[in-house]
Amino acid sequence: MVIAFLQHGLLFKPEYWLIGVLLYLGASAALIMGRLPSHPYFYVAVCLVGWYVLSTFYAINPQNAISASGKLALAIPFLILGAQLTHSYRVLLMRLLIYVSAGWVLIGGLLKQFREGRFEGTLEYANSWGALLLTALIMQISLTAISKNKMDYWISAILLIGILLTGSRTVFLIALILIPIQLFILKKNSLQPWLHKMQLRSLYLFAIPLITLICALAISRNLTWLNRFTSISPHASEWEARLGYYRDAWRIITGSPFVGYGGGSWNILQYQFQTAAYSVRYLHNFWLETWIDVGLIGVLMIVLLIFLTFRQAITQYKFVTSSDKAWILGCLLASCGLLIHSTVDFTFSYPLLFCLWVLLGQWTAISQPLETTDRTPRLTSHLSVRLSVVLIFITASFVSIRLGIAESLLIKADQRYAAQKNSKEAILLLEQSSNYALFPADQHDKLASLYLIRYLANKSSTTDIKRAEMEANQALAINPKDPHLLFLQTQIDYVIGNKVNAVERLRILQQQFPFRADIRDEYAKWTVR
């Protein structure tokens, strides 16, 4: 989890493929001596991941689908490892996440991890960084209610400062709702959190660093984060834009409402259904994106996960001690905070945040199979079952290594060509990358582009343009609805000499994708000629 924290929340492909290997191997080692979780929550999560993997076989873009599956699949080893821990170790792990988050607020301030005046932290995106800090703050409040350590007030103050510096209005509003609810319930259960019956000295320990640091940062840095809080409005430009995304997403959903189009389909289908000029990698809505990816079936699995989380939290809350109540309340509200934020942002596109969300749902249950005195043999304790899962994880590790290498070579090829304009070396790297990838659509796309560029620079060789045509066709065989690939194919056709046919196909593409500026501009050039 700490590695994921430091590696951009595992947002980028090489990171989550290669770190996934460590998770799968760690979960395999844990299963040899431990046991599988027995709660239905775990098996619903397995079904969700399994459904994403199955969607690869009917996806409009198998390469994106396998990547989306790989992100979500990291939750399974997280859940298995989390199930092996006793409650005390879970508390220790959560404290580690809290301390690392608070420590990075200070380190990030020194390293000036700000963009446009907003604090982005290790995730390099202010809103998601704010959601992570809010999760840490909610858990910190619950742990403070249990331990009543004065140092906890300083940690809480630092986390709150970090949240404010992100300038995330959504996180701020969620905090204004969830934290008062949390404090009210803790006080009602006589846990005396924070300001309840605190001495004046303890109040100073919290208030002085909070006021001092906020004033210092406000004076020394851009006040963009503060201005955002004074301009909270349902008519904000980014909110209006996202509503447009959501309307277009619903049009996509109606085309295949039950099974979806496979993981990562939004990146392709947005251009076909968009009603305004935009190009966004993420839909900024977990529910709609899941619905597009895996249909209503996948959405119902998410709903079932939420139901099981609340059911086990409410059931156990009635019978546990006050300290355990504080823990359950923290896990439940932190889980709600992440879920609410994912409704208006791409929070769960970060594997770290998605895995943290499913872990919080699992950890709302205090008692676990490893802590019970029941010695009755269960299916989850049978060695043959555990070894079967270990074999699956080893296979997943092998696939992750291959895909991680493929993505690393792909990035290296882009960097080499951008820095040196050396198409020969970039082509060699891309060919190596395509050998490792399962669905090398991106590799064939980039190879086609490089061969086309090389032919235009030296038209004496027809080998390059023929190779460009072949690579483009191979990419389209994997991803036939990608407007970029369709556009590239028409460009190659035009260069070959089939100008009349290419212009007609480009006209059709312009009608099909009216907001693609590159297609519109190229068509204008061709028709002028």
TrEMBL record:
InterPro entries: O-antigen_ligase-rel_domated (IPR007016), WaaL-like (IPR051533). Its main location: membrane. Keywords: Membrane, Transmembrane, Transmembrane helix. The keyword Isomerase does not apply. It is found in: Membrane. Residues 156-302 form the O-antigen ligase-related domain. It is a multi-pass membrane protein. Pfam families: Wzy_C. The chain crosses the membrane at residues 16-34, 40-60, 72-90, 96-114, 126-147, 153-181, 202-220, 291-314, 326-342, 387-405. PANTHER family: LIPOPOLYSACCHARIDE BIOSYNTHESIS PROTEIN PA4999-RELATED, TEICHURONIC ACID BIOSYNTHESIS PROTEIN TUAE. This is O-antigen ligase-related domain-containing protein. The lineage of its organism: Bacteria, Bacillati, Bacillota, Bacilli, Bacillales.
